[in-house]
Amino acid sequence: MKIGIFTDSYRPYTSGVVNSIELFTRDLTGLGHQVQIFAPNYPRCQKDSSVFRFASVPAPTNPDFSLAIPFSRRLKPAIIKFKPDIIHVHSPFLLGRLGAKCARNIGVPLVFTFHTLYDLYVHYIPFGQEIVRQITRRYYREFCNGCDLVITPTEIIAEHLRNNGITSDIKPIPTGIDIEKFKSRDNKWIHRHYGIPQNTRVLLCVGRLGKEKNLGFIIEMYNWISQKYPDTVLVIVGGGPEEQSLKNRVQELGLQERVIFPGMVDSQEVFKYYCSAYLFVFSSVTETQGLVLGEAKAAGVPSVAVSAYGVKEMISHGEDGFLTQNRMDDFREKIDLLLNDEDLRNKMGAAALLNSIKMSSRNSAEKLIMCYEELLSVQRLQKRESLQ
Question: What is the CATH number of the domain that holds 58?
Answer without folding.
Answer: 3.40.50.2000
